[in-house]
């Protein structure tokens, strides 16, 4: 049976493919899923460590039922998904003699969910995980390690916006814009569903058994092509923090898990009513909390933190990418809203500033991603493109410093049909080999600073940052070919062909122009994002 897991910053959704009904359905996991009249079964992305040495943890609704989310106990974790794959240093506790970081908390969380699914009981032979656009690469590596410990034959991965497009069932439309706005990230993705019955299903594989390979290869595939995408580390948890800061400033409250929980409840209420009140009595300290806020005040707090400017920036990035492909805003057939934050009326009004209301869909904000991810098990192929640009480092004699020559632009679809060619000569006499340092070229539109305020994980957008991350700048990885005889300056010596395969590996072929020999043929160098 295929299971899809949409691991969110605030909530997690688990869905399965119902073979009898031939449609997806959201699972309710006993003890883990929250019961709600308004929403489908959601598992709060919360975890409490009872014994780190024995990997004994509580998660989901279990944590709330026992009130463990309302204390300042370092054994309690929330919003931990945001720290997975980042270089954040800050509040990392030592529990029971064990250092507990975000990656380990996330591994405990997902492992326990899979274990709970098996107890239903269900035969789990295929898992599909969904991931946000902006942290795709680091998150993929972490998921790969987690999947090794799961007793599942096949583990696949799909980015959340594409999954949402499939989940809304609008694969017959020409152009779809998916706005995925959850607890931790904002992702915008422009998707073109296509039909392609001649190619095998791809998806991105983390783990694949031979039996499932044979079964899946025989299926007819569909294609969902991502045309443009943009993302920011901005979500509902940031709004919760802003509300807490507001009440600290205006009411003199202290920052605590209790005030954070009350702020979150106020935010949820204000999506339904114009004025909300939350009251809490601490029976241990005999203190009472009463928070009150109306919708106008709430939206003023959003505006104070440049909330809508950040949304406009993401929208403009996607629309600019679309225009480079000859698409205008009027060519977008439908706009799909997913994630809890899209339920905020101000967010919906912001979307309506760009699009006609009849184009906007918001009837499956929580379930669309997990249910769409299940389409991978039904023979859907995902054609995606590279989120970053890539190039090689060279010595800039004019500036007397290292610079970067762009080889592959962001937006390049993969696998590439035609390679990129580059001709190089030796730079030194008796040069024994050709070395290349390949780098991921950061976007010029800005960056994200991630830091701690006490034990709160905070993200802040930084304008005007450009960064380059070298991918193979280490001993044994720079050299791509040995030169026999050695190279001399003054003439072209090697021709290099670069291409990206279906799993985003950059592969190179190197031809020696002097000896007419192929020194390397289609060798993988690094994996791109």
Describe this protein's structure.
With 529 residues, the chain is of the alpha+beta class. Helices cover 23% and strands 37% of the residues. The protein has 11 helices and 33 strands. The strands form 9 sheets. Strands 1, 2, 3, 4, 10, 11 and 14 form a 7-stranded mixed β-sheet that branches. Strands 19-18-12-13-15-20-23 form a 7-stranded mixed β-sheet. α10 links the parallel β18 and β19. The longest helix has 18 residues, at 307-324. The chain is globular. It starts with a strand and ends with a strand. Mean pLDDT is 82; it is low at 195-205, 208-222, 443-452 and 461-466.
Largest sheet data: 7 strands, mixed
What structural class do you assign from the helix and strand content? alpha+beta
| Number of helices in the DSSP assignment | 11
Query: In total, how many beta strands?
Result: 33
**Average pLDDT metric:** 82
Terminal CA distance reads 29 Å
Q: Can you tell me the overall shape?
A: globular
Strand content bin:
35-45%
The gyration radius over C-alpha positions equals 25 Å
Which regions are unreliable across 5 or more consecutive residues at pLDDT < 50?
195-205, 208-222, 443-452, 461-466
Please give the share of residues in helix.
10-25%
């Amino acid at each position: 049976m295929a299971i899809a897991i949409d691991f969110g910053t605030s909530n997690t959704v688990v869905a399965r493919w119902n073979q009898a009904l031939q449609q997806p359905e959201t699972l309710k996991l006993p003890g883990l899923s929250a019961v709600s009249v308004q929403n489908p079964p959601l598992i709060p992305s919360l975890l409490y460590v009872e014994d780190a040495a024995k990997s004994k943890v509580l998660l989901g609704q279990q944590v709330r039922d026992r009130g463990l989310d309302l204390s300042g106990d370092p054994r309690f974790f929330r919003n931990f998904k945001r720290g997975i794959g980042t270089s954040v240093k800050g509040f990392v506790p030592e529990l029971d003699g064990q250092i507990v970081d975000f990656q380990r908390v996330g591994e405990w969380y997902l492992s326990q969910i899979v274990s709970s699914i098996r107890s239903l009981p269900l035969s789990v032979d295929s898992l599909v995980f969904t991931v946000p656009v902006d942290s795709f690469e680091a998150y993929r590596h972490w998921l790969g390690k987690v999947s090794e410990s799961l007793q599942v034959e096949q583990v696949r991965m799909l980015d959340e916006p594409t999954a949402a497009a499939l989940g809304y069932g609008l694969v017959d439309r020409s152009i779809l814009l998916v706005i995925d706005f959850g607890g931790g990230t904002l992702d915008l993705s422009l998707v073109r569903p296509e039909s392609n019955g001649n190619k095998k299903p791809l998806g991105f594989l983390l783990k694949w058994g031979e039996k499932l390979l044979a079964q899946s290869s025989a299926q007819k595939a569909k294609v969902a092509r991502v045309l443009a995408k943009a993302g920011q580390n901005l979500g509902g948890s940031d709004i919760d923090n802003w509300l807490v800061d507001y009440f600290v400033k205006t009411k003199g409250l202290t920052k605590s898990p209790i005030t954070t929980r009350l702020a979150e409840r106020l935010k949820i209420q204000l999506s339904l009513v114009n004025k909300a009140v939350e009251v809490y009595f601490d029976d241990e300290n005999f203190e009472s909390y009463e928070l009150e806020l109306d919708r106008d005040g709430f939206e003023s707090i959003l505006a104070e933190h440049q909330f809508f400017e950040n949304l406009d920036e993401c929208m403009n990035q996607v629309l600019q990418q679309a225009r480079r492909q000859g698409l205008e805003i009027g060519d977008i057939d439908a706009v799909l809203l997913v994630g809890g934050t899209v339920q905020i009326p101000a967010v919906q009004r912001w979307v309506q500033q760009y699009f006609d209301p009849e184009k906007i869909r918001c009837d499956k904000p929580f379930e669309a991603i997990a249910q769409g991810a299940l389409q991978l098990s039904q023979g859907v192929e995902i054609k995606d493109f590279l989120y970053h640009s890539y190039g090689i480092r060279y010595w800039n004699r004019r500036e007397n410093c290292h610079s970067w020559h762009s080889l592959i632009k962001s937006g390049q679809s993969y696998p590439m049909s035609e390679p990129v060619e580059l001709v190089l000569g030796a730079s030194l006499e008796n040069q024994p080999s050709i070395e290349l340092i390949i780098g991921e070229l950061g976007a010029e539109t800005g960056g994200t600073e991630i830091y701690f305020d006490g034990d709160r994980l905070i993200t802040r957008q930084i304008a005007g940052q450009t960064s380059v991350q070298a991918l193979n700048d280490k001993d044994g990885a720079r050299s791509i070919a040995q030169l026999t005889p050695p190279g001399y300056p003054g003439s072209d010596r090697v021709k290099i062909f670069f291409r990206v395969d279906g799993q985003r590996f950059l592969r190179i072929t190197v031809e020696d122009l002097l000896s007419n020999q192929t020194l390397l043929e289609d060798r993988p160098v690094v994996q791109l994002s």
